[in-house]
Design goal:
The chain is built from 12 helices and 10 strands.
Length: about 300
């Protein structure tokens, strides 16, 4: 009961705050129509991939707020922060007086808030390579930077087609991409991996490999040590963008896998720790991870 009352009070407070601090907002609209374009001067981005896309489109100077996870390009670090995925600061967003908020489809509750407050927003998807391409094209259209969007997409398509052409006739080793796990314990525990029909699954295929996990029922399944032994990947990609924050070094993290000596990737020392942030941000830099994957999977090619 107290939680319900608190939530209701919060909604009322935000609505009142929006009326007081944001009188200039067009209260008749929320989600932009697909054909609606405009000259936006105060944009708030709620996702790192969107922030990167705006800078790539030459619209970085229009950003007035980003999440604390938006660290690229370096200019994004100095922008006002509006919280994170699970703790958005709506008061901070309102104070920034945005004329447009950009967010991903995951922010369903936020869309309700913005609609109630009359704040215009655009929602994009980023779950597949096709989604990323569509987002870049869509934002380019909405923001009046079509030409730049086309240049970005052309560069991405060229890199993808080049890698696919060079690897298409080669043997495809089994690759397992680890999204998250407990580290530094000397054991393999709480491991989440990329399943089928995911952004990472697509990149493995494009880079000339085969996802070691072929069951398409769960997008990011948790697998046990025994399950990994059964999958027996030839290559393990361990994504750890927060490696510096853990206080662990790569050798210590890799040593956890020694507990599975019978796995091919372990016995042949084909475990790669990737801490670059672009590997986990499905934005315009995703092709950097694709290029890295291709070099790891097919070192026999003179890249």
């Amino acid at each position: 009961m107290k939680k319900t009352f608190f939530a209701f009070s919060l909604i009322v407070a935000l609505l009142l705050l929006g009326i007081v601090l944001h009188k200039t907002i067009d209260r008749t609209s929320g989600q932009l129509a697909t054909h609606e374009t405009g000259q936006y001067e105060r944009i708030v981005s709620l996702s790192p991939n969107i922030t990167e896309t705006l800078f790539a489109l030459g619209m970085g100077d229009k950003l007035v707020g980003v999440t604390r996870f938006c660290n690229y390009p370096p200019e994004a670090k100095s922008l006002p922060k509006v919280g994170g995925y699970l703790d958005l600061n709506y008061e901070a967003i309102i104070r920034l007086r945005p004329d447009l908020v950009l967010l991903t489809d995951d922010f369903q509750q936020s869309k309700v808030f913005f609609s109630q407050l009359g704040i215009k927003y655009i929602s994009v998807n980023n779950k597949t390579v096709s989604d990323i391409r569509s987002s870049i094209a869509y934002l380019g259209k909405i923001l009046g930077t079509n030409s730049r969007a086309e240049e970005i997409l052309k560069e991405i398509d060229t890199k993808i087609s080049t890698i696919q052409h060079r690897t298409e006739a080669l043997y495809r080793p089994n690759v397992m991409i680890v999204i998250e796990r407990t580290m530094g314990t000397g054991a393999i525990e709480d491991v989440y991996i990329a399943g089928k029909n995911t952004f990472f699954d697509e990149l493995i295929e494009m880079a000339g490999g085969k996802n070691a996990y072929q069951d398409g029922k769960i997008t990011y399944p948790m697998v046990s040590a025994e399950g990994i032994s059964h999958l027996n990947p030839a290559i393990i990609i361990d994504l750890i963008p927060q490696l510096k924050q853990t206080g662990l070094d790569s050798l210590k993290v890799v040593s956890d896998w020694s507990s599975l000596p019978d796995v091919e990737a372990v016995s042949k020392r084909q475990i790669y720790i990737i801490s670059d942030d672009y590997a986990v941000i499905p934005g315009p830099r995703f092709y950097l991870f694709l290029e890295l994957l291709a070099r790891i999977i097919h070192p026999e090619i003179d890249w």
